[in-house]
Design brief:
Layout (H helix, E strand, L loop, with lengths): L12 H9 L6 E2 L5 E2 L1 E4 L18 H10 L6 H11 L4 E4 L6 H13 L9 E4 L3 H14 L8 E4 L5 H9 L4 E4 L1 H10 L9 E4 L2 H6 L3 H10 L5 E6 L4 H10 L4 E5 L2 H6 L1 E7 L5 H11 L4 E4 L3 H13 L4 E4 L5 H13 L4 E4 L1 H4 L9 E4 L6 H8 L9 E7 L4 H11 L4 E2 L5 H25 L1 H18 L3 H13 L11 H11 L1 H6 L19 E6 L9 H11 L10 E3 L4 E6 L4 H9 L5
Parallel strand pairs: 3-10, 4-9, 4-10, 5-7, 5-8, 6-7, 8-9, 11-16, 11-17, 12-14, 12-15, 13-14, 15-16
Antiparallel strand pairs: 1-2, 18-20, 19-20
Helix pairs in contact: 1-3, 3-4, 4-5, 7-9
The chain binds adenosine monophosphate.
The site of adenosine monophosphate has 13 residues, from helix 4.
Length: 595
């Protein structure tokens, strides 16, 4: 069944009941020329209505898969967007990940295509990264798990074409992909687009940030003219509004004012630490909080070396970086969700879109390259209404970046100290006492163990004439083990660190450290860039987006950390982070653009 635009039916019962349903909805001007329906919502947990999805009129297979996933009520964005999309309206949505936006567009699409028997794809979803493409495709698959013939295919760069081509040859309903790979498949004729009647642009601002504007426009131009358009973006810069004006037809506009609230649940902190003390500082932080932690670092190499070191200190750790195959990444995330591992050391590219509720702490071990990366990183905690903590490591050189970050995120990031031996030892003591206390409670619950313990106690008293306090001491000694319980490493460097590096007055008065504008975007670490020359240029048909996607797919460099790009006739100049690892530089030497 085709997704058809039917803006005449806006006064239908379904929509009326939806609009009346919430006092949180109101109308707003998108621009001065034209009034566009808008729905302003406060994020709330929804009511306790057990059948929150019934009102949308979804078929039974969708309702069953939602039940299997444990969804009881639609999130605000789902309440607002689903009725509009079911009516075939275009939609402009401002919402971050974590708001349930994927289901908001996926469910109406699945509903409308449940009985689709045609071979060619009907819907195209475009995402900025392969991680998000996989995640969105996985969401489609799980929401359609009970709809027997529904097929979703993900196509993204950095992987072999063959599997994607053979999947596209079979029946497919929805294709989810990244712009570069979508273009390749369209050009090669391996992705048949003549029946596409719905296009979703997910995280559109991200795609623009990565330089995909031309590619997106090229793709839109190839698609059939009569199609439903859905555009989701976390922010609404003028470029996004322009795209909306150019391509969307009388869209319903939905704003979710949840961003602030969500980041408010995250307590943001920083500490001063010199480069050579970072690992020690990290281990000290993990003494206080080590269950459900993500550590963000800049290079793949660092992910593995830090993970090894933490493992040697007794933590359960895994690594997520661009070298790790997709299926293994999924497995790692699954193990993190289930608590088999507690700590994840990741690069930015690999952790994109990661959604694990039990993450309590995000450590920014390496300073993020820009505000968006920072916001994205810390958003890995504080999921699903839980609170979380984010700690940023800052060195002398990075002080003014910290100030810029505070300004651009309009957040005060609170300073904390690296935990001293005293703090750590107090924490260890507290934990030991809690553990002993908890096991005394647990003991009551298991009759068999209780009998065993009483037996052991009787034996100890009879055979060795031990009294209660002797026995208790021996038992605690057993728990402590042979290793020294308290930390007594030299921690004098911590005070020095705090005193010399803090220099808050400097931090507060340094008004000269302004963000220098890069031509492409606001990197507040421009002075840590280096210009690389590549021997391809305009004559090779190369464009900015091609360069970004090649660099991102061939190395661990995050698209956001790429600075200015200048393309000349037969060469290009690209600003890249100054401290790239040798291995990354070697990979850069070999990169190919557009083959
Ligand atoms: P998204 O914003 O699409 O990335 O979704 C964020 C998280 O919310 C994902 O883990 C979804 O599985 C979950 N989610 C989406 N909709 C609902 C819902 N109605 N009830 C419970 N969880 C949901």
């Amino acid at each position: 069944m085709a997704l058809k635009k039917d803006s005449n039916s806006l006064g239908s019962e379904q929509e009326k009941s939806h609009n009346e349903d919430s006092s949180l909805l109101e109308f707003k001007n998108l621009d001065n020329k034209k009034e566009i329906e808008s729905q302003l919502l406060e994020v709330s947990k929804g009511d306790d209505n057990e059948n929150g999805f019934l009102d949308f009129g979804f078929n039974q297979s969708i309702l069953t898969s939602l039940k299997n996933k444990g969804y009881k009520n639609p999130t605000p964005i789902q309440k607002a967007a689903i009725p509009q999309l079911m009516l075939g309206r275009d939609l402009l949505g401002q919402a971050q990940t974590g708001t349930g936006k994927t289901a908001a567009f996926a469910l109406p699409i699945i509903e409308k295509l449940t009985d689709n028997k045609e071979l060619n794809a009907k819907v195209l979803v475009m995402t900025p990264t392969r991680e998000l493409a996989t995640q969105v495709a996985e969401s489609f698959k799980s929401y359609s798990s009970e709809s027997a013939n529904f097929k979703t295919v993900a196509i993204y760069g950095g992987t072999d074409y063959r599997n994607q081509i053979s999947a596209l040859k079979r029946k497919v309903d929805v294709v989810v992909g990244t712009p570069g790979r979508i273009m390749d498949h369209i050009r090669q004729g391996t992705f048949k687009i003549k029946d596409i009647n719905c296009l979703v642009l997910d995280e559109a601002d991200e795609m623009l940030n990565m330089g995909f504007l031309e590619d997106i426009e090229w793709i839109i131009d190839q698609l059939p003219e009569n199609k439903q358009m859905v555009l989701f973006s976390a922010t609404m810069p003028s470029e996004i509004k322009n795209i909306a004006k150019k391509y969307l037809n009388d869209p319903a506009e939905i704003l979710i004012k949840s961003v602030k609230k969500e980041t408010q649940l995250i307590s943001q902190k920083f500490l001063y630490v010199q480069r050579h003390h970072k690992l020690d500082a990290l281990k000290r932080i993990l003494e206080l909080n080590n269950e459900g932690v993500i550590i963000f670092v800049r290079t793949k190499l660092l992910t593995t070396s830090i993970a090894e070191s933490l493992e040697n200190s007794g933590h359960t750790v895994a690594v997520l970086n661009g070298d790790i195959p997709q299926n293994q990444r999924e497995n790692t995330v699954d193990r993190l969700k289930k608590g088999f591992i507690n700590i994840l050391v990741a690069t930015d590219v690999a952790a994109r879109g990661l959604d694990v509720e039990r993450i309590k702490l995000v450590v920014n071990y390496d300073f993020p390259f820009d505000k968006e990366t920072y916001t994205h990183r810390i958003g890995r905690t504080g999921r699903a209404g839980r609170s979380g903590e984010a700690i940023l490591f800052v060195n002398q050189r990075e002080k003014h970046f910290l100030r810029n970050l505070e300004n651009s995120t309009r957040t005060k990031i609170e300073e904390i100290n690296i935990p001293s031996n005293k703090i750590i030892n107090e924490k260890r003591m507290e934990k030991l006492i809690d553990n002993v206390n908890e096991s005394s409670l647990a003991k009551d619950e298991n009759e068999e163990n209780k009998a065993l313990i009483i037996d052991v106690l009787d034996n100890l008293k009879e055979k060795y004439s031990m009294d209660d306090s002797n026995i208790a001491m021996a038992a605690i000694n057993l728990v402590i083990g042979n290793k020294s319980f308290f930390v007594n490493d030299d921690d004098s460097w911590i005070n020095k660190q705090n005193n010399t590096d803090r220099n808050r007055s400097n931090r507060n008065s340094n008004s000269n450290n302004r963000i220098r504008n890069s031509n492409r975007r606001n990197n507040y670490q421009n002075d840590s860039f280096e210009t690389y020359k590549f021997n391809f240029g305009k004559f090779d048909g190369v464009r900015v987006a091609n360069i970004i996607s090649s660099i991102c797919n061939s190395t661990n460099i995050n698209g956001r950390s790429i600075g200015k790009i200048q393309i000349f006739n037969d060469y290009s100049l690209v600003d890249l982070p100054r401290d790239l690892h040798r291995e990354t530089k070697n990979k850069l030497k070999k990169i190919k653009v557009r083959n």
